[in-house]
């Protein structure tokens, strides 16, 4: 399952794209182009290769930067494998520890299989970890008439009225973690809101929660269940975006996803999609 990663440091409102002493620029987007465990004379080190899209000399100047003496602890064979090059091109290496202390935001763009196929055609680089796809999707709606617009969990008496979708996960594949868990991406997209905007209907604040399904469950979960069980994953903040997405890891099993608007009785159509490195089936509970 491929992803794009972008890191940044929160901008100073009083100084546009200010460069810090460590060479990094505030309010600037950096892409992560590689992650490697590098053997050195003093042990393995986790390094990330990061690129400043300006492509100039404004680079990280700390440990493992261009011409850092730490590179003397890596033999030439390993440096050749990493394609280490000390150029004023905006690309540099940084340790994992320095990365997490220096950057403040990390954006993740999960790639669907059709995008990954397009990247293969563009680059000629063929993935060797198998093909995965958005393997299931369902249409749904929040409707007052159908009594399916329950709002978020804050409105717990009406929350169970929302559409509920059961995910059946089996056979986790290609997991680099080796723990047998499934990596799952769930996305909920509001439909037709652009067409409705001229009528004063903007995107609604939406989100969803994921729950472990009771054994043998085949019907919608009720209020008592939600009062006594916490979600395993959820959208952290309800926001009026066209699509909201959450990536999570769980053992194979049965799970229930509950998409909702923030407030009850708000109406919209939506598309829910699920993507996993395991076998997945999704159906709406009645």
Short description:
One of its GO terms (biological process) is proteolysis. With 286 residues, this protein is mainly β. It has five helices and 14 strands.
Please give the CATH class of the largest domain.
Mainly Beta
| Radius of gyration over all CA atoms, rounded | 23 Å
Per DSSP, the total helix count is: 5
Rough outline: elongated
**Mean pLDDT across all amino acids:** 88
How big a fraction of the residues is strand?
35-45%
The run of helices and strands is: EEEHEHEHEEEHEHEEEEE
The CATH architecture of the largest domain: Sandwich
At CATH level 3, the topology of the largest domain is: Jelly Rolls
Largest sheet: 5 strands, antiparallel
- End-to-end Cα distance, whole Å, is 31 Å
Please list the strands of the largest sheet in the order they lie side by side.
4-3-2-1-5
GO cellular component, one term: cytoplasm
Pfam families: Calpain_III, Peptidase_C2
Domain Calpain catalytic: 17-112
Family: Belongs to the peptidase C2 family.
Question: Would you mind describing this structure in some detail?
Answer:
- This is Calpain catalytic domain-containing protein.
- Residues 17-112 form the Calpain catalytic domain.
- The structure is a single chain.
- With 286 residues, the chain is mostly beta strands.
- It folds into two domains: 3-109, Alpha-Beta Complex (Cathepsin B, Chain A), CATH 3.90.70.10; 134-284, Jelly Rolls (Sandwich).
- It is 12% helix and 36% strand.
- It has five helices and 14 strands.
- A five-stranded antiparallel beta sheet has the order 4-3-2-1-5. A five-stranded antiparallel beta sheet has the order 10-9-12-7-14, with no helix packed on it.
- A hairpin with a 2-residue loop joins strand 2 (30-40) and strand 3 (43-51).
- The longest helix has 11 residues, at 113-123.
- The protein is elongated and about 70 Å long.
- The two termini are 31 Å apart.
- The mean pLDDT is 88.
């Amino acid at each position: 399952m491929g992803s794009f990663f972008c890191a940044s440091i929160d901008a100073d409102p009083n100084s546009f794209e200010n460069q810090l002493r460590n060479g990094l620029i505030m309010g600037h987007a950096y892409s992560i182009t590689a992650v490697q465990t590098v053997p050195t004379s003093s042990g393995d080190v986790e390094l990330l290769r990061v690129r400043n899209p300006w492509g100039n000399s404004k680079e990280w100047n700390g440990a493992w930067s261009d011409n850092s003496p730490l590179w003397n602890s890596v033999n030439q064979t390993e440096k050749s494998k990493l394609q280490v090059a000390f150029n004023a091109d905006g690309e540099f290496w940084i340790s994992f520890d320095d990365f997490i202390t220096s950057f403040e935001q990390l954006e993740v763009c999960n790639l669907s299989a059709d995008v990954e196929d397009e990247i293969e055609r563009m680059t000629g680089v063929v993935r060797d970890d198998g093909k995965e796809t958005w393997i299931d999707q369902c249409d749904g709606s929040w409707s007052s008439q159908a009594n399916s617009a329950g709002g978020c969990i804050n409105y717990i008496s009406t929350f169970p009225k929302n559409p509920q979708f059961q995910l059946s996960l089996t056979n986790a594949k290609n997991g680099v973690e080796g723990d047998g868990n499934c990596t799952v991406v769930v996305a909920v997209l509001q439909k037709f809101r652009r067409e409705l905007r001229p009528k004063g209907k903007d995107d609604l604040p939406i989100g969803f929660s994921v729950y472990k399904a009771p054994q043998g469950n085949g019907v919608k979960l009720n209020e008592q269940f939600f009062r006594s069980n916490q979600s395993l994953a959820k959208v952290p903040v309800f926001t009026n975006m066209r699509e909201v997405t959450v990536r999570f890891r769980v053992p194979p099993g049965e799970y229930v996803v509950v998409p909702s608007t923030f407030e009850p009785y708000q109406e919209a159509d939506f598309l829910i999609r699920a993507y996993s490195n395991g076998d997945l089936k999704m159906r709406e509970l009645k």
